[in-house]
Amino acid sequence: MPFRAFPMRKAAALGLSLAALGAACLETASSASTVIRQKSPTVSFVSDVKPMLAKYCAGCHSGKDATAGLDVTKLSAADLMDESDIWNRVVDRLSKDEMPPKGMPQPVAMAKTRALTWIKNALDKECRIADPGRVTIRRLNREEYNNTVRDLMGVNFHPADDFPSDDVGYGFDNIGDVLSVSPLLMEKYLSAAEKIAHKVIQVPGVKTLHIESGDMSGGANSSQRDDGWRAFYSEGAMEKAVDFPAGGHYRLRIRAAGDLAGPELPKMEVKVDGKVFQVFEVGVKFPNATVVEAPIDLDSGTHKISVAFTNDYYNTKDPPGKQDRNLYVNFVEFVGPTGAQAPMSPAYLHIIPTQPTPDTVQPDARRDIKNFATRAFRRPVTTQELDRLMTVFNVGLKDGSFSSGMQIAVEAVLASPNFLFRAELDPKGSKAGVRTLDDYELATRLSYFLWSSMPDDELFQLAAEGKLHKDAVLKQQVERMLADSKANALAKNFAGQWLQLRKLSIIFPDPQRFPGVDDAMKKNMATETETYFMYVLQNNRPITDFIDSNYTFVNQKLAEFYGMQGVTGDQFQKVPVEEPRGGVLTQASVLTVTSNPTRTSPTKRGKWVLEQILNAPPPPPPPGVGTIADEPKKLSATSLRQLMEEHRKNPMCAACHAKMDPIGFGMENFDAVGKWRTKDGQFTLDTTGVLPDGRSFSGPMELKQILLKDKAKFARAMAEKLLTYGLGRGVEGADKCSVDAIVQSSATSGYRFEDLVTQVVESDPFRKTRLSTAQ
Amino acid sequence: MNTIDRRTLLKGIGTAMALPMLERMLPLTALASTPKVKVVRNAYLFVVNGVEITHWTPAADGALVLPNILEPLADVKNNLNVLTGLTQHYAFANGDGPGDHARSCACWLTGVQARKTSGADIHNGVSVDQIAAQHIGKYTKFPSLEIGCERSGLAGDCDSGYSCAYSSNISWKDDHTPNAKEINPRLVFERLFGNGDEEEQGESLARRQILKQSILDFVSEDASRLKSQLGRKDLMKMDEYFTAVREIEDRLVRFENSPTYAASQAQKPMGIPGDYGEHIRLMADMMILAFQADLTRTCTFMFANDGSNRTFAQIGVPEGHHDMSHHGGDPAKLAKKRAIDRYHIEQLAYTLKKMQSIEEAQGGTLLDNTFLMYGAGISDGNAHNHDNLPILLAGKGGTNLQTGRHIRYNDGTPLDNLYLDILDKMGVPTDHMGDSTGKLQGIL
Fold first, then answer.
1. Is the pTM above the cut of 0.80?
2. With an 8 Å Cβ cutoff, are B233 and A136 in contact?
3. How many other CB atoms are found less than 10 A from the CB of residue A652?
4. Tell me, what's the ipTM?
5. Rounded to the nearest 10 degrees, what angle do helices A402-415 and B205-227 cross at?
6. I want to staple B218 with a disulfide (CB 3.0 to 4.6 A). Which of A263, A390, A412, B198 is the partner?
7. Are the C-beta atoms of residues A614 and A546 closer than 8 Å to each other?
8. Which residues contact B286 (CB under 8 A, 6 or more apart)?
């Protein structure tokens, strides 16, 4: 939630031009007879600000009916930080000579300057000692866990897909305070650690990889029976991608049976990676069974195994019981590897580069575990930790082998809180205050922000050399990281939550009204927006492209959905768009997540714009607000817009709905799945709207123009969201200075997206932390 | 998404399976040792967005005559009680403004007014199932089981300023830790029975225990050391980790001979079925299996997250559930909400019928020996009120509780009183919970 702000309504009123103030202020003090003070060396609140406010402003801005709700007599030097919004506005109005209004007594230039000097210095000072905040220790969330395992171990294995969902806070699922460890999750961590360790560190010895027919795909011409047999009644195949952690010599075993008919025996064709390995003849009649075997050599890695029935036969002229030839398969097994040790997988070699001799078992283990744990903990492992890990290794070594010891040590590392949590530990004996994060902590924050994963070798190297925090180096790293394909995590995780694309998976538009919007189409919609997001980021486009632009990304299916011509193929490509399309508000993904399953929801769309674009969520409905009157309105007789007028008839509802509904009305040309329409059923659309500040528009183009004018607000919203996501905590009052600085920097560079991300990384809250003893 | 269109039938669930399975897998339960102490379970099944209350409430008190929504329960009517008029004071706003779905969901099993926050500093209370689990959980491999059909909130806040944690969980371990639920039936099965990897690894059970223990020792030590360097808020997180590790350690030591995959005759589910009804039934099967094998005696089951806008095309309701629950008096929407409620009841009927058919060695059926509460935290979905909650209590919890009744309570009678009864009968006498005023009258 944004920091405590001056009440919305009052702030909006303050923002309004006060030209209409007129004769509200009654005091008519003469303008030029202010006593000119002696030049005093330092400005102070008491001598320079308070009296000026009292004399020139309090006339209107005080008391119960204070204009725009601002009572200057209540302002004090102490509340500068909390009321910085108000103070900033005071500075703004005074320096632009907008206040006091023309025709009212004006302070002399000197007095004004002195007052402004004091206020500006004070605001500056507050910023210089501003608290960078502290992030509660964060555990890896599901995405981060999967990515980290990928990068740490080199295996493409997603154990976190089975983890329970991460709870969301401040709009994101990576917030330290909100992520918890339930007992269920701990079980899964342990189980995942075991699976990963076993997958990568193969202990030599013969194993059986057993695959039930029920776990294999395919199904068009076969039927999986309850007794575990797959029955092929006609020709067809079943297949599975099988992981072979260790390569070598295996024995293939398949339990099969057949129904015999005709001149041939049922033929079972086994393919490996698309090539025929062997065709077996199955001569045993079901329900008896046989196990056919064959030797096979396989490299480590994933191989596609397929089993097919290739010679169906059916002839009613044959004697009964011998008319129909079928094949039945129960399971497929690979037993091995046996014989000479095949080369280990790259993932294994990454952790254990050389096999030890009997003399070097302990030092080799220590060396290998040290390297692994350092990478896994994302900072040098301590001697004491290493000693304890060696103890674990030796438990595994006993009655086992070097590999089994390494396996168990790897498992322990993966289950450790030092792996699962990103700890930022204050040096022992620190007092209250602020410290700069060390390079390892900075590297970790950086990589999880931009890649949702652990630092890579280059980042670790720079951290080890103590160079990462240097401004030039940091900036260059951000550039490198954003150009890396791992930065797609930002599209998936940041954009997915900021733009709420993730909700697509739980929205089911009515198939009667909106045919063709199935899982595949929704995936295309999400891909459009994610690709768009990455384009704006990686080409350092201005963030206003999110509001409006003249391009987007589609593949053939999505292009057809939009009614675009000339796009072919599955690949997404950049295409020009014409108004009113352009920008995320007109993309099918956003339009669908802001609708109901059977119709559009102007309120949801308005709320989405307020929350996601302007970071100014409407307050929740007031207590006791009740629901819309009970008379059943016939939806078919009234247009949606007329129905929504109910919101605005009731003054309790109107205050907030007046903010949300008009925006949604402006988008009504896009139906509940994002297609263009000019009518809603039988009703013509009224897409005009008036915002609370009085600006009016007609249709999506004009609405976008209005939003574009608010681009400073949008930049601020983006900065806050990036900061929230990058830090893993909500934005607080003390962050205001940093956000101000980011937005100002951003303005000078034309609000470009990559620059904005860099400015977030360079900000104090990202690079520093408040010490825990200060809590 | 790993959805499939068919589910693997669990073989032999029912009378044929019950006896042999229980006898073969006897862990340290009272079942074997002290026949006079009954093994009693408690289960809490949660539906969302309220119900169409006029067709839920039986017309007359006393002998139960099933109204429209509850008609599918005809075959199990004599084993349940419908309780009308119960309320939860702390599910109401009480000055906190809107957010009824999240707030009442958080309150349903805790009785506590959840703190309104969408980010940090979540604060609720301990739920009744966990109070029970804290006492009887030590007799079973898993202190409790939390299952559901929908993942927790995916983006944004979930209800007017309340964190998604509130609307996605009904089981709370302590006042800030919800117990995450499992939504994939295959994973529930694997958790209960192992996943067969053990045989593949070729390691002996004893060796696995030693290895696991050394890992747990290592990570516990890591956690202790970390704690000494952390700030106050960080400590809470590390405590969660630490507590979880300790529970697992405990389980490792005490349940070495638990049923493993090979020993169980049940067939493992393939994954999450595409059909919602199948999904619910398959999860219910898992709960029943867990009870039968005495792997746990406490279970919470969320049919959906509160506020869910799931569509029900399969029963002619393509609109979202939440949208229909805000019926505004419109007869068409009321009818659709009713259809959704009935659909859920059909799944409950399946569950109760199965439990009713399982004879137990200790006497009675599984249903006889279970307290199963089914209901919602909201009464009428349109009014969002939390008095006159739709609640039914199935089973007898091993007592001679009279069933087959509709009992109407005076307005304002706390639902939390029922929890005191259940806890008492489970051997966990509790004085007070939420807004309770004492045990519920008319139950025993």
1. no
2. yes
3. 13
4. 0.82
5. 40
6. A412
7. no
8. B145, B147, B185, B188, B189, B192, B269
